[in-house]
Amino acid sequence: MGIYLPIAEMSVNMVVLLAMGAAVGFLSGMFGVGGGFLITPLLIFYNIPPAIAVATGANQVVASSISGALAHFKKGTIDFKLGTVLLAGGVVGSTVGVWVFSLLRSVGQLDLFVSLLYVALLGTVGGMMLVESVRALRRAAGGNVASLRKPGQHNWIHRLPLKMRFRASKLFVSVIPVIGLGVIIGFLASIMGVGGGFIMVPALIYLLKVPTNVVIGTSLYQIVFTAAYTTVVHSTTNQTVDVVLAFLLMVGGVAGAQYGARAGAKLRGEQLRALLALLVLAVALRLAFDLFVRPASLYSLSSLSGV
Amino acid sequence: MTMHSLRLTTLTGILLSLLIALSPVRAQVPETANPESIQIGLSTDRVSITADFSGADLTIFGALDNSDPLIARHGRYDVIVVLEGPPRPVVVRKKTRFLGMWINTQSVTFVNVPVSYSVATTRALQDITHPDNYRQMALGANNITVVPAVRDDDPATIREFAVALRDRKKASDLFSERIGGVHFLSQSLFRATLHLAPNVPVGTHRARAFLFKNGVFIKESSAQLAILKSGFEQRIFRAAQEHSFLYGLGAVALAFVTGWIGRLVFRRD
User: Fold this and answer.
1) B73 CA to chain A: closest CA distance, Å?
2) Residue B7 CB-half CA count within 13 A
3) Closest by CA position to A46, among listed A76, A96, A10, A93
4) Complex ipTM, two decimals?
């Protein structure tokens, strides 16, 4: 069934997009991730112009993260102060990101930059997760209990100035790494169309030593508003947010996420992380393949504005 | 107005023009002045792109005035109909290998390239007239003039990129050719069927009909066609262009509501 996308100015198959949204929603529900890192590459593989895929991906991330954020809000597992400082950084990063995005688009290097960022980030994060989860699986087989947080340990981050107290996280830490993390997440959100949870969650746990019970909620709270801000800035600067496309993905995604969460509850944490790592690596490999293999045509056309 | 009644009005128009052509005033024109001429009328003067648009066929009716029955009977009249999209600048980029990766390294910008170029003919192009004539008339996807924005580039490079431009346009279905797409319904009436690609650009398109007699170009006639997004699609597009900030807020609000409703529907906690 065809549907015309008013911003992308092309006709696409509605069923394919709903299924894409549902599949990504299923995986994101299962693994507890936003799914932006899957949606944007899938849209690009489906010939949606990368500029539109990224901006629309950011919009979809809002919908897929809000439901989780609401659940954590109800449970009281959001550190609002920490999240708001992260968000302040996110706004700065996103603004810079959208500016870089427009610049790259005008010189014709946006697709390359998006692909490179995806390959580098997904490759690194996926590789690290795979190593970590395989170790955890081995340890679990040996009967030891894995612990993520080692409260006694301090690292270089705790020696930085401008410390601030975050009561909900029981943290007394410098705002510099917190804002810096927010900036990076905002930048990635605007250039890759991702929520950034796959970087935010490990960074909060391993670098800032945030207690695991508030990590997901705080991360989701920050992601919802950073992605919302990114959507508005992309829409204002580049006019590349396609609501029809975003809505199809959201509907499929919201429904798929519920079933994914049920499937995820049946698997153990380490197994989930190993599977997610394999998935992330697969996306990175697929994008790398496109970069390194001679394309069918060496030439491409774009309008002056870059779409 | 519906398509059907539009088609009727157009046909009436053609008949009227035929009547005028047959009136005594025209009959006084001397035989030597190549009295044949061509008229076209579109079945509709606007095409709306609706939500379920996935490409379409556009029918153009036309008539020859003062056609010579003998030549017509031998099929020596040929018609080429072209539907040309609005001209826009295009950047053609070329990838080369750099550190093992295929990266856009070279680009040439062309100004005023028709976004789409759809051709229908009575016969294969090479059977109608000599290729030189097409080149002179800038007729056909391979002959339309594409002007580089910067003229001092190497001519060989510009030629290479111009070829790539046409090739990519053909690959995306925006440049197309339909041999036998023009049918003579009678000695003087013909019908052309042109292809509108699913990604046809919106804007004012120009339909042009070229009449050839024994391989010699006789006359041209043209008409305009507006391709628009239909109400809903157009409103979204305009909102995104003109009220982009509010549009962005709306997109975010839609995401909030969708996520929230999803939570209500599938409540688990």
Assistant:
1) 43
2) 9
3) A10
4) 0.82
Chain B interface includes A241 (CB < 8 A): yes
Which residue ranges make up each domain of chain B? 3-229, 230-269
CB–CB contact A298 B95 (8 Å): yes
Class of domain B3-229: mainly beta
CA nearest to B87 within chain A: A303
Residue of B nearest to A66 (CA): B259
pLDDT tens-place string over residues B13-59: 444 444 444 444 444 444 455 578 888 888 777 888 877 777 788 88
Q: Is A233 at the interface with chain B, CB within 8 A?
A: yes
User: Which residues in chain A touch residue B95, judged by CB atoms under 8 angstroms apart?
Assistant: 295, 298-300
What DSSP line would sit under chain A, residue for residue? -EEEETTTTEEEEHHHHHHHHHHHHHHHHHHT---HHHHHHHHHHTT--HHHHHHHHHHHHHHHHHHHHHHHHHHT---HHHHHHHHHHHHHHHHHHHHHHHHHHHTT-HHHHHHHHHHHHHHHHHHHHHHHHHHHHHHHHHTPPP----TT---GGGG-SSEEEETTTTEEEEHHHHHHHHHHHHHHHHHH----HHHHHHIIIIIS---HHHHHHHHHHHHHHHHHHHHHHHHHHH----HHHHHHHHHHHHHHHHHHHHHHHTS-HHHHHHHHHHHHHHHHHHHHHHHHSPPS-SEEEEETT--
pLDDT in tens, B103-146: 888 888 888 899 899 999 998 888 888 888 888 888 888 888 88
Q: Which of B93, B266, B269 sits opposite A300 (nearest CB)?
A: B93
Listed by start position, the domains of chain A span 2-292
Q: How far is B214 from chain A (nearest CA, A)?
A: 39
